[in-house]
Amino acid sequence: MKEFNVTAQVYELHDPHKQNLLINHVFITNSSEDAIKQFNSLYWLSIEFHVVKILSVEEISQQTV
């Protein structure tokens, strides 16, 4: 399992002035495709936000200290 940070552009459905928001979520999955699927499932029936597009999916490196 790996950690992926998904960043997407969204707009708030109840406020027309908030058309260009960014949302980040971190998912622990096997692949970036799974992270995108999980992100989309969170917002599939959202009454607050509409996903305009996914901007990036980045694997978070596991650094040891």
- Measured by DSSP, the beta-strand proportion falls in over 45%
Protein structure class: alpha+beta
What's the number of structural domains?
A: 1
Shape by Cα distribution? elongated
The helix tally amounts to: 1
What about the largest sheet? 3 strands, antiparallel
DSSP strand count: 3
Helix percentage: 10-25%
Keywords:
65 residues, alpha+beta, three-stranded antiparallel sheet
In short:
By secondary structure, the protein is of the alpha+beta class.
What does this structure look like?
The protein has 65 residues and is α+β, with helices and mostly antiparallel strands. The chain has one domain. It is 18% helix and 49% strand. The protein is built from one helix and three strands. The chain has one helix at 32-43; strands at 2-12, 21-29, 49-60. The chain has a three-stranded antiparallel beta sheet, covered by helices on one side. It is elongated, with a radius of gyration of 13 Å.
Sequence-ordered SSE layout with sheet pairings:
Blueprint: E1 2-12, E2 21-29, H1 32-43, E3 49-60
Antiparallel strand pairs: 1-2, 1-3
